[in-house]
Amino acid sequence: MKLPRIVITGVGLTAPNGNSLSEFRENLLKGVAGIERIDVRYMGQLLAGVCHYDPLKYQKKKEVRVGTRAGSISIYCAREALADSAVNFDAFPKDRIGIYIGCTEHGNVETENEIYNISKFNYDTKFWSHYHNPRTVANNPAGETSLNLGITGPAYTIGAACAAGNMGLIHAAQMLRLGEVDFALCGGVSESIHTFGIFAGFKSQNALANHEDPKKASRPFDKGRNGIVISEGGCLYTLERLEDAQARGAKIYAEIAGYCVNSDASDYVLPNPERQAQCVRRAIVNAGMTPRDIHIVNTHATATPLGDVQECQAIGSVFVDCPETYINNTKSFIGHAMGAAGALELAGNLPSFDDLTVHPTINVDDLDPQCALPGLVLNQPVKAKRVDAILNNSFGMLGINSTLIVKRFVA
């Protein structure tokens, strides 16, 4: 059975260094990072990637107050993606639109805030917000988006740790191919910087980045890397079956070529390079390609000492003798946006289909020899002879791995 072809027709995002694809891409090519210091409850000033979009562009003040940061980011990205797709949204049957949003964790922010608030009143729970439950349910980001847009089709979040951004797109492609929906809003979001718990957790693991210059704190592959910079952000796409996109004359960014999701089943936190390599290989096979057909590999690398080395081992075992394959990393610019990471990182590379330019990994002053992969793009962009396929890695805690491949659209 020949499966329907699925294409990307719209992109909406907010990242610590840009609030649109064009701004984001420009800053990736110019080497502009978006990391700053913020005050974290109980912990003082820490490094973080903060988004500076306008939440009131698509929401009223009361909606922002009642809702969540993750919901607000989702609404902003969804509206931007819809506008970019140029779909006639008003006329589109709302029950045939699906919303699939990847999220690492949700609800911690609201629960921490409520406990902090009632602590001022001797922990009297009568001061607990009656909005707490709808704010903290796992489907909140997708639910808030459906409410804002009046979409009555399936709307839910996908919990896949830091592989969730890729998973949003993978799941949407599957639902479109099954005929469950005719149009999908999908990707990933994160509000992680608003919970002190995630900072405290990474600090207890000695995995929280520190640097005197915030812009240089996220440094995957560098010998001096010392941990993760936690970030917020979001990126949602519009996905459609090819025939539907062509029927309305939509512009097409790329075609979904293949994907794979697997599990390490070996550790709560430590990655498994053998399983990661297996995920990458299976995605390539599922796309009907060989490693030499991939021209950009966007790494998941988070700038932890062991994690970067293990992913490089996985990638190096797959891409042997691939002279036209370039390897880069986006977290060096924006930190780790958790559930939004994979979706944002894919977006940052999509324009390479048009300009044949590969954005670099920045902040690599002293390359770790264990991360010295052939084709690694460091500190300055490079021009490629061709870019026909992009492979995007996103891995997460409890051993979930996702690899997504998109290819240049050819009618």
What report would you give on this structure?
The chain has 411 residues and is an alpha/beta fold. It folds into 2 domains: 6-247, Peroxisomal Thiolase, Chain A, domain 1; 258-407, Thiolase/Chalcone synthase (Peroxisomal Thiolase, Chain A, domain 1), CATH 3.40.47. Helices cover 33% and strands 21% of the residues. The chain contains 14 helices and 15 strands. The chain has helices at 21-30, 61-66, 69-85, 108-119, 132-136, 140-149, 164-178, 196-204, 242-247, 273-286, 305-318, 331-334, 341-349, 352-355, and strands spanning 6-14, 35-40, 44-49, 97-103, 155-159, 183-190, 230-231, 233-241, 254-263, 296-298, 326-328, 357-358, 382-383, 389-396, 400-407. A 10-stranded mixed sheet has the order 5-4-6-8-1-9-15-14-10-11, with helices on both faces. Strand 14 and strand 15 (400-407) form a beta hairpin. The two termini are 20 Å apart. The model has no long low-confidence stretch (mean pLDDT 97).
CATH class of the largest domain: Alpha Beta
Mean of pLDDT: 97
In CATH, the architecture of the largest domain is 3-Layer(aba) Sandwich
What is the strand tally?
15
How is the quaternary structure best described?
single chain
First-to-last CA distance:
20 Å
Would you identify the CATH H-level superfamily of the largest domain? Thiolase/Chalcone synthase
- Structural category: alpha/beta
* SSE ordering: EHEEHHEHHHEHEHEEHEHEHEHHHEEEE
Q: Bin the helical content.
A: 25-40%
Number of helices: 14
